[in-house]
Each structure stands twice: as structure tokens, then as C-alpha cells.
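Morning run. Coffee first, then this:
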Amino acid sequence: MKRFLGFVKKEFLHIFRDPRTLFLLFGIPAVQILLFGFVVSQDIRNAGVAFLDLSKDEVTQKLTDRIISSGFFRQTDNLLTYNDIDKVLKKGKTKAIIVYEDNFGRNLLEKGKASMSIIADGSEPNTATLVTNYIMAITVDFNREIAGNSAGSGSLITPEVRMFYNPELKGHFMFVPGVITLILILICALMTSVTITREKEFGTMEVLLVSPLKPLQIILGKVMPYFILSLINVIVILILSWFVFGLPVKGSIALLLAESMLYILMSLSLGILISTVSKTMQQAIFISLIGLMLPTILLSGFIFPVENMPAVYRWLCTIIPPRYFIIIIKSIMIKGTGFFYVWKETLVLVVMTLIFIGLSVRNFKIRLE
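And here it is:
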């Protein structure tokens, strides 16, 4: 028994002396509970709403104040005409637009009822459903206040709900672009992350380092085959999305392919960077899969809206590359927008790509020295 206890003590010491094991035991569970606890939420916070007030009377102002002061929404814009609705929704910052009919207050006073329209961005079905439900709940509460009793009258203000870009609220309008984003970054980063680590493990790194090729040429040579194959992969995915799920490409196919090529290059560059800092293929695969999968699913806006997250997580989302490509692919495929609406996200991906390539080249130069 004494020998057994001594053996158990030795195993404890081995565990406590290995930082990587301690991180796996305590670090990853702590990170996961913090991520899932704050990010996985069906509550609405800071959802952008705009108003088209054709009446501009006291009643519409009170209802607008009630919606904004609820804490669930923030006002992004005041529209002047119906022509502004599509432009505002394409920008992506507004989740819903509330339209008050002309003579809203007068109709409510004289006819006992008035109409309002809730026009939601259906490219994100879950968010659109939550936003419209919250607005309708606030409207029902406003109806009760006007009626002056707890039962209220549901016919005082009658909201009419419309969904832009996805009238039937089909779930694959949200999941297919997100899955494309997830697949590309995982496959591209994973494929390239093992390239240089494989050279290290097989002992052929020295051959590359003493070759006349420059570090940038070596990196581009490693990336180019995967770039071409990943582009073919994108085309196959888009064709399957069209024929299997009926997901249209409302915008420019050329622009979509160009943005996809940029995202592929960024993902491959990230994979090369991972491979230059990893000592083994196992370590590179672990970083590529675990380090990229959870952030892509949780912090990119793929499933859970970024607006609902605490401030710290919203800041973390700004350094997650898939977040920007999801905005780009949804805008082009579902909303049919042009480059003018996605140039900021494109610029971010370009900067990230240059940073990843620059860091990879620097790591190569350090090894050469």
C-alpha cells in the first residue's frame, strides 16, 4: 500500500510539474465555461433598430421611447422614405426597421386602432425572430397601458411583420454561409500548419534553409497548391449550396470568388504562421483545430449575435478573422450587396493576411540566422 501511495504521489508531481497538462485540466474548462456562459445566450442586447415615422406625433414618439428605453435595442437611424429601408438593412448594423403609418396617433384615437410594420433582416433567422418577438411584446405592453387595464386590447396597435432577404426564415440561409466560413479556415489552416512542422520532424528543414530560395518564396511555394485546391473547394461548396439547399447568390459571383480567394489566402497564411511556431505536427494540429474551431463558432457571429455579448467579448470578436468573412459572404450571397458595403471587412482581411505573412517570413529569417 505504501508503494502504491508513493506511485500515486509521483504521478501527482508529474502532473503539477507539466504546465501543458495543468492547462488541459484547469485552463481549457475555465475558458470554455466563460465562453459558453456569456456567449451562448438567447437574450437580446443592443440590437440595432431604425424607425420610419410617417406620422411624427406624440403616440409614435412614446412608443419609440418605450422600445429604445427597454434596454434591448439601440436606435441606429431615422429613415425618411421607404427607399431607405433596403439601404439601411444592407449595411448590417440594423436588425429591424419599425414603420409607423401616416396619421398613426389620429387613427388610434378616432378608429381605435393603428398599424405599424416591423421589417426585419431575415438573413439571420434566429436574431430576426427574437427581435420581432421582443418588439411585439413591448407593443402589447404599450397596448395595455393605453387600454388602461391588465387585459388590454390586442387590436389597438396591430404590428405587421415582414422579413427581408429571407421571407420564409429558412435556417440554411444562416448556417450555410457560417459553415462555409468554418470549413475554409479549418481546412486551410490545418493543411498548411502541418507543412513546415512536417519538414522539421522529417529532418528536411535544413535542406530548405540552405536552399537558394528566399523565405517568402518558400512560404508562397507551400501556400500555392493549397490555395488552388481550396478555391476549387469553394466552387464545389457554392454549387452544392445552390442545388441542395437552394441558397442563391444574389450579388456578383466574381466579387464573391474574389473575397473567397482573399479569405483562403488569409487562412493559409494563418496556417503557415502556426506551423512556424509549432515544434511538432501534433501541436500544430491542436492549435489549428482547438484554437480556431471554438472562436469561429462562438465569437464570429456565426450562431450567436455579437451585439448580445459583453463588451470584453465584443472586443475579442474584432480580432477573429471569420467574423468579417461571414459579414461579406452573407452580404453578397443573401443581400446582393456590392463592394461598397463590404470594403471595410475586406480591408481588415487584407491587413490580417499581410500581418500573418510578415510574421511567418520573420520567423523564417530568424531560423536562417
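Residues 172-368 form one domain. Good start to the day.
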